[in-house]
Amino acid sequence: MSRPRPASQHTVRRHNSALVLDSIMQAPGSSRAAVAARTGLTKATVSSLVDRMIGAGLVAEGEAQARTGPGRRGTALHLSPTGPHGLGVEIGVDYLATCLVDLTGRVRARWVRPSDNRDSSPSRVLAKVASAVRTALAEDVSVGGVGVAVPGLVEVAGGTLRVAPNLGWREVDLRGELTRRMALDVPVLVGNEANLAALAELWHGDVAADFVHISGEIGIGAGIVVGGGLFEGVSGFGGEIGHLSVDPRGPRCGCGSRGCLERLAGQDEIVRAAGVSGVDDLLTRLAAGDKAATTAVRSAARWLGVALAGAINLLDLPTVVLGGNYARLEPWLHDPLRAELDRRVVSAEWSPVRVVASSLGAEAAVRGAAGSAVRAILADPDPYVTSVLT
């Protein structure tokens, strides 16, 4: 058994850099002295680390603060809005989305391109992604990392998409392919779109620390947040609620099973049952009180209730956040879904389940992807700082 070794100077600096930046992030406007007091580090150490992060563009100084005692007036420290941005990419079944967010999570720009990716090879779609990335880079901002959201099982550590039934993709090295095509010397993070949407809702939405975010598009995915953290399962493959069989005799699904939730409550099934051309047409019919449209949405709500009640009975989650196109349909989904949950959730009498629309809607996954790239820098800033200053 090897003995523990003393921490190197670099390891200590890396730890302390994260500590200092977190303090600034949690209390914007703090002075160096205030950061030293909160972190327990010496003022000299804090000043040195802050100067490095200012040089790398992570921290910006504001106006000098009012002096309450002897000594120099401190200056207010903030995350720099002109510092490295996160570039988010979402590969949807029928669209591609990209966005840029700054260190504070503010969206600088967002683009959405219709794209039927179901009939395209990974190579062809990734060529479109590279083109979309070039458009984003024309904004002339520093990009510190790229986050990619994809509808399928992702091995996050290696950036490999294992399977995406609705795209027809298997075993795609997304990290490697996109790193090569984008020609950017920055980290590339790949994640499941529902998980990244749930994280965006946690970071920027109006929900507490425990909820299930269900993304309703052509496919259906769930991001589960417990205690303010994402629950992904042992292998990172959790949340595939769209492939939960709610009707064993139901229609065949692309995953190989029958009666999966997304085959009964996904976008394609709702649109087909309503006899409309798309979600926009569906919303128009719903607003007009069209019977077929209303019946189609109520049927989807019932199947959603079956699946979500099982998840809530298992995990004891207090809130359901309806994301993606479900957010747009929430006024018509809410009551029948709540009724199904009240009937099926064992604890509903004592702990009624709250059902709310996502405040981010269709933007959640791509914002979560961009935000994950930013937060990777904020959680461990020293590698970025070192790369910029050397």
UniProtKB/TrEMBL annotation:
What's the domain of life for this entry? Bacteria
Question: Mind telling me which SUPFAM superfamilies this protein's record contains?
Answer: Actin-like ATPase domain, Winged helix' DNA-binding domain
Query: One short Pfam family name for this protein?
Result: MarR_2
User: In this protein, which residues make up the domain named HTH marR-type?
Assistant: 18-61
InterPro entries for this protein? ATPase_NBD, HTH_MarR-typ, ROK, WH-like_DNA-bd_sf, WH_DNA-bd_sf
Its family remark reads: Belongs to the ROK (NagC/XylR) family.
Q: What is this protein called?
A: ROK family transcriptional regulator
